[in-house]
Amino acid sequence: MHLENADLEGLNDSEARALLARRPVALLPIGAVEAHGEHLPSGTDNILARRLVTALVERVAGATPLLLLPLLPFGQVWSLADQPGSISLSNETVSRIVVEIGLSLKAKGVTAIAVVNTHYGNVVALRDAQRRLKDEGVTLAIFNYPGAAEPTRAVREKPAAHPAYMHACEIETSYMLHLAPEAVRMEKAVVNYPAFPEDFSELAYRWSEFSASPVLGDATAATADKGRIILDAVLGRMAELLAALYARGREA
Fold first, then answer.
1. Domains in the chain, ordered, with CATH?
2. Which of 146, 148, 207, 209 is deepest in the core (most CB within 10 A)?
């Protein structure tokens, strides 16, 4: 399957009807508009989401019927909402949008959706949507870079700034150098290891309260090769999950 055969925005009525008849798995890319420092644009998550789903459709190459939906370009970015390059929606809004898309797809016979999420701030909203859609008979899978953990450990040269967070760092910048090198300004990359508050896990903090930069880690250590290695594993795992999701739908 090539992108032009799966992208809903590019299909006419007859083509869309034929694809829907195959009960494809719908791919919903979602990102965010969020500050990423001086070396990456505010649209980093959106760029990654678009290019990752494009690569995924090509990787699957027709083995699993896919319906590629338009990108959802806004997400929940509360932690960096006070930055000039950030625009944030509430968790409730993100969740409701995803649920309503899911219900619209269900009305057309599509009951399996995979969200390709490149912004971890969306996870709470997506989990809520996942549960609400399950009650409506729609299966929503959430892909937050599945399969990335092991290759990340293998290629990482600098420590993570926080065990639960990565942002505009060695790893995310490597993703961009691989998928969108024209958008990266490596000469402006920085090293930033802020001192997280001791009660960071218990209280809510804007990141600007403890860090002068949205970068968490060492962006200067990023390379396109690191991004390629990690994302190749991610694409392989997503392709496997899509095949299983499609098979599950056919058995239902």
1. 3-251 (3.40.50.10310)
2. 207
